[in-house]
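S.,

Sequence below, as promised.
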Amino acid sequence: NITPIALSTVGGTTVLSDGAMPIFAFKVTVAATENQNAAVDLTDLYLTVNNSGLTGLTSANIYRTDAAATTVNASSTALTAIQFIGTDADLSGLTNIGPGESATFVVEATVAGASAGDTLQVRLASLGAQGTEGTVDFSAGDLVWSDNDDETTDNKTSWISWPGITINSVTGETLIKPAS
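The prediction came back faster than expected:
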C-alpha cells in the first residue's frame, strides 16, 4: 500500500519558499507474510512535478524518516519531473521494508524563484496496471521495486496494482508561496 503523507508530519510545510525543503512524502506499507525474505526493496522512482511560476527545482534527494542520514540523490531534477533511476540513484541504498512494516519516505529539493501565488505539487502519476514480474518499464508505472521473495532471483517489477486492487496515483500536498 502507498499513501501520501502530510509534509507537516515529516518536519515540512506547505508554505513554498526558496531554498532546500521537503516537497513530497509518502508511506509504503508491506503486507505481513510468513516469508521473511519478502522485504520490499524500492529501486527506481519517477515523480511528476506540477508548478506555476518557479524558475528552478534542483538537487532532489530521498530518505527514509527512520534513517534520515542515508540519502539518495536524484539522477535528474527538473521543473516537470524528478527521477531516481540508474546506478548512481538506485534506491536500494535505502533500507528495505520488511513484511508487516511501514516506511515513510521524504523527497527534498532546492526551490528557486518562488513568488507570491506560485505553487508546486509532486506526485507518483502512474502506478501502473498489473504486469509481469521481471519487466521494468516506466511507461507502465513510476515506481520500480523487488519483493525479494524468490529463492534464486529477486526480480524487479514496475507495477503496483494487484488483482482486485488498483492504485492509479499518489498525489502530495500543494505547496503555495503566500502573498507577502
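The radius of gyration is 16 Å.

Coffee later?
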